[in-house]
Design a protein that fits this description.
- The complex is a heterodimer of chains A (482) and B (430).
- Chain A is of the alpha+beta class and 482 residues long.
- Helix content of chain A is 35%, strand content 20%.
- In chain A, a hairpin with a 4-residue loop joins β17 and β18 (373-380).
- In chain A, α8 (226-238) crosses α10 and α9 packs across α12.
- With 430 residues, chain B is α+β, with helices and mostly antiparallel strands.
- Chain B has an 8-stranded antiparallel sheet with strand order 17-12-16-15-19-20-18-21. In chain B, strands 5-6-10-8-9 form a 5-stranded antiparallel sheet.
- In chain B, α10 (327-336) runs antiparallel to α11 (362-376).
- Mean pLDDT of chain B is 93; it is low at 224-235.
- Classes of the chains: A alpha+beta (482), B alpha+beta (430).
- Chain B: Keywords: FAD, Flavoprotein.
- Chain B: This is Glycolate oxidase FAD binding subunit.
- Chain B: Residues 27-206 form the FAD-binding PCMH-type domain.
- Chain B: Pfam families: FAD_binding_4.
């Protein structure tokens, strides 16, 4: 089927200005933050209301067209990668903050509102929205919901799933449904958050607002090597302290950050640790004393402290720019997002170092040390023959290391298209079949963001269990096994 | 009878200890035929496969403390008692996680974790409750204000489905977004999707110090000044100053872990108790006491009051949820109904448990429930019947409206197409 008829229909539903079919303009939307996966979407629509999204999804059902939702396109796993035979539903025009209700500590926002805009709307009232992915200036809350985003402060405050009180969604059938924390019944709200757009599209988000802490203190500690830094992290957590954030960068990541933003981290540091403490002043003062002592005992040769927002921003500048910064020291790189139990960090980092040397591929380590979420940046020169392949091998072996140590293949970036082939390494066929039961309940026709998260498509009529023969979708050329 | 014998034989062939049920095993008044005592996930899977083959209806039970919660099952052949799934499998102190079988009681788990200076930050309303029952009913106590409910602390889960499939989701790390979060789906699912056999939780260090600050609020005569329904000839009382006190506490920077209300008699005064935790708990308690002192005489204690983290009754229990700013409206609405209600719960989160006497009467009970739903529904209030004998609930829906019910039914159909797992126990008759 050509897409002309659906495009005309969407024009009737949304207004012709809200439908893009021009091939040049369509290419604007061919990838998200993971640029090595690119597909030009069949049609792009720019709805302004939940009802418009519902009408588009209903029409997609009539035509049997797959659809993909996209916010700002900052995702790092290809979760919003479009379909050439389908519709990309872009929520960037839906960016109103609909209500702020401080008495009930909540706000209701449209999905295209950026993460930081929520905090900015209530900061002057002494409140904020806690989950803060590094891309928070541009990433949208709808995307945060799809990916269950975290950020540096989720060690203490939790993830998107812990801060969303209700959602309005368009189901894959095109129904508008409210999923609420307060409603009796299954926790569909919890199941939906982090489902990467495969269970429907978010059209309204009710978020929890938090009281800004009385005090925030940020420490930067410089160590001669990453082992010393790791020791300090273990001692802090072992000492019963749960900081708001505890982040680490190795020498190569520091070098990249210096090259990009001149963050002026202590010279000669083989690792820097950023520890942020927040809460009641007296509590923070006590914890600050403890963390300082632990860092010094672990070998920190320089400590810096920030008490005001400007100083704090200076400390964070290097860390927050690290991903972009490696572009200064390497023509190309892969960002990984594996997670390991915190106690396995020293062993896993040593193994990554070995992998790096064995394959002649540099790896810069930036990670959320408190919760074991690694972001190894696997650097390579895409002009050098074979380097990309070697980087892929190293990147995959890092994920294997995470799985071997009881961790996860993704801590916050999502599975998307990028890691779906790793899902069977982490989960059994039975585990994946069980997840498909949820998918089939929401999306029996498999139209909502198909091809993401799961490696092997399953028809919802199929009985789970041992598969025999070739899958019908594989046979028809619509899918492939990895 | 012949068929029954085959079923019993097939169950015993699993190697799992099976006994005939006795009247004490009844689930919300419905007696099962057999009780099975599996010791592993594999044994639960074997039981579920036999149950699938013979179309046996299955209800899982832990400590039985909340077995009378939820609707009575439409049918019940096999009770799977998880008491022998009683091993704490892994406590990784450095990683702040614990992996445990779900028949372990919350008390036993707490003792194990205390050895490593850690805790699962969930309060247990009833002694003897197990991990599995706590997850299945989404039970939580005062500290839900700070730490949330089981779904917020659960990071991995192993379940056995209706056909005997064993499935895992999540894992052993706190930060993990790979695949669907089945742990959340199973939290509060009342045994209707599968049997939860293992769970992994994130832990917290036991705080260095704790203080409870309590203020007694006397009853004051109260009249609505508008022309609304609330103006009646009946003398109404209400704990004075509650509304502004709770708003002040919720907005304070003392980071309380819990703000609890105890209102033993809807015609009288109430107590509000705040918990602060941490190395600086003493200093923070003083700040909280100052704030509370504007509303009455506030005292600081290093132990909780006797009523802390316990339900206000046993046989007839309701759960009321409402946006926090309307909590006082909910309390007034309860008082206005004129029944001897006892209310306790997280006033700052506005998740309250209401107890009524067992002899309240079917009609009075139905009017109380439907009346409150009508009063509070427009404000976002939800009232569910946690526990009530069947003779009280003929005239009403225990759960009340759920906007996503069609989707919930579809989830149930996928997980349990034969309706054999706790059928009829849950919302919408699921």
């Amino acid at each position: 089927m050509t897409l002309q008829e659906p495009a005309r229909r969407f024009g009737e539903l949304l207004g012709h200005g809200a439908v893009i079919t021009d091939p040049v303009r369509l290419r604007t939307y061919e990838c998200d933050g993971l640029t090595h996966h690119r597909v030009t979407p069949g049609i792009v629509v720019l709805p302004e209301t939940a009802e418009q999204i519902a009408s588009v999804v209903r029409a997609c059902n009539e035509y049997g067209l797959p659809f993909v939702a996209r916010g700002a396109g900052t995702g790092l796993s290809g979760g919003a990668l479009p379909r050439s035979d389908g519709v990309l539903i872009v929520t960037s025009k839906m960016r109103r903050i609909l209500s702020v209700d401080l008495a009930n500590r909540r706000a209701v926002v449209e999905p295209g509102v950026t993460n930081l805009a929520i905090t900015e709307a209530v900061r002057h009232l002494g409140y904020y929205y806690a989950p803060d992915p590094s891309s928070q200036q541009v990433c949208t809350i709808g995307g945060n919901v799809a990916e269950n985003s975290g950020g540096a402060h989720c060690l203490k405050y939790g993830f998107t799933a812990n801060h969303v009180l209700a959602l309005e969604i368009v189901t894959p059938d095109g129904d508008l449904v409210e999923l609420s924390d307060d409603d009796p019944g299954y926790d569909l709200l919890g199941a939906f958050i982090g489902s990467e757009g495969t269970l429907g599209i978010v059209t309204k988000v009710t978020v929890r607002l938090m009281r800004a802490p009385e005090t925030v203190t940020t420490l930067l500690a410089a160590f001669k090597d990453i082992e010393q830094g790791g020791q300090a992290v273990s001692a802090v957590i072992g000492g019963g302290i749960v900081p708001a954030a505890i982040e680490m960068m190795d020498a190569l990541a520091i070098e990249a950050a210096e090259a990009a933003v001149a963050c002026a981290y202590p010279e000669g540091a083989g690792a820097v640790l950023i520890v942020e403490l927040d809460g009641p002043a007296e509590e923070v003062a006590h914890q600050f004393g403890e963390v300082t002592r632990i860092c010094e005992e672990s070998g920190a040769f320089e400590l810096r402290v920030a008490d005001d927002p400007a100083e704090r921003a200076a400390i964070w500048r290097g860390r927050k720019s690290a991903f972009a910064a490696v572009g200064r020291i390497s023509p190309a790189y892969i960002v990984q997002d594996g997670v390991v139990p915190r106690t396995a960090l020293p062993e896993v980092l040593a193994s990554i170092d070995r992998l790096s040397r064995d394959h002649g591929i540099r790896v810069a380590n930036v990670f959320h040390a408190g919760d074991g979420n690694l972001h190894p940046l696997v650097l390579f020169d895409d002009a050098e023959p074979g380097a990309g392949e070697r980087a892929e091998i190293v990147s995959g072996k890092i994920l294997d290391l995470c799985i071997e140590h009881g961790g996860s293949i993704t801590g916050e970036h999502g599975v998307g298209v990028d890691k779906s082939r790793y899902m069977p390494r982490m989960f059994s066929a039975e585990d994946l079949d069980t997840m498909q039961l949820v998918r089939c309940a929401f999306d029996p026709r498999g139209l909502s963001n198909p091809g993401k998260v799961f490696p092997t498509p399953r028809l919802c009529g199929e009985v789970p269990g041992v598969r025999k023969g070739v899958h019908p979708l594989v046979e028809s050329g619509q899918a492939e096994h990895f | 009878m012949k068929a029954l014998r085959h079923e019993a034989e097939a169950l015993s062939k699993t190697g799992v200890t099976i006994r005939e049920a006795d009247p004490g095993d009844a689930v919300a008044g419905v007696p099962p035929r057999w009780v099975a005592l599996p010791e592993s996930t594999a044994e639960v899977a074997a039981l579920m496969r036999v149950s699938a083959e013979y179309d046996l209806a299955v209800v899982p039970v832990g400590g039985g403390t909340k077995l009378h919660w939820g609707g009575p099952p439409e049918r019940c052949d096999l009770l799977i008692d998880t008491c022998c799934l009683n091993e704490v499998l892994e406590h990784a102190t450095g990683d702040l996680i614990v992996r445990t079988q779900t028949g372990v009681t919350m008390d036993t788990l707490a003792e194990t974790l205390a050895g490593g200076g850690q805790e699962l930050s969930l309060d247990v309303p009833l002694d003897g409750a197990t991990i599995g029952g706590t997850i299945a009913t989404a039970a939580a106590g005062p500290r839900r204000f700070r730490y949330g409910t089981p779904r917020d602390l659960l990071i991995g889960i192993t379940v056995v489905l209706a056909d005997g499939t064993v499935a895992r989701s999540g894992g052993k790390v706190v930060k993990n977004v790979a695949g669907y979060d089945l742990g959340k789906l199973f939290s509060g699912s009342y045994g209707t999707l599968g049997v939860i056999t293992e769970a992994t939780f994130r832990l917290h260090p036991v705080p260095a110090d704790r203080r409870w600050i309590t203020v007694e609020l006397p009853a004051t005569e109260h009249r609505e000044d508008g022309a609304g329904e609330m103006v009646t000839s009946r003398r109404q009382s209400f704990p004075g100053g509650l509304e502004s006190l709770v708003a002040g506490l919720a907005a304070s920077q003392a980071e309380p872990s819990a703000v609890e209300l105890d209102w033993p008699d809807a015609r009288g005064g109430a107590a509000v108790t705040v918990l602060v935790e941490g190395t600086a708990a003493r200093g923070r308690a003083l700040a909280v006491r100052t704030l509370m002192g504007e509303h009455g005489t506030a005292g600081i204690a290093d132990a909780p009051p006797g009523w802390w983290a316990t339900p206000p009754g046993e046989d007839v229990l309701l759960e009321l949820r409402i946006p926090p700013a309307h909590a006082h409206v909910a309390l007034r609405a309860i008082a206005a109904r004129g029944l001897p209600a006892r209310v306790r719960g997280s006033i700052a989160s506005a998740v309250l448990t209401v107890a009524l006497p067992a002899d309240v009467g079917e009609v009075a009970f139905a009017e109380f429930v439907s009346g409150l739903r009508e009063d509070l529904g427009p404000l976002g209030g939800r009232l569910t019947v946690l526990a009530a004998p069947p003779e009280l609930t003929h005239l009403l829906d225990r759960w009340g409206p759920a906007s996503a019910l069609p989707l919930m039914r579809r989830v149930k159909e996928r997980f349990d197409p034969g309706r054999r797992l706790s059928p009829g126990r849950f919302v919408g008759g699921i």
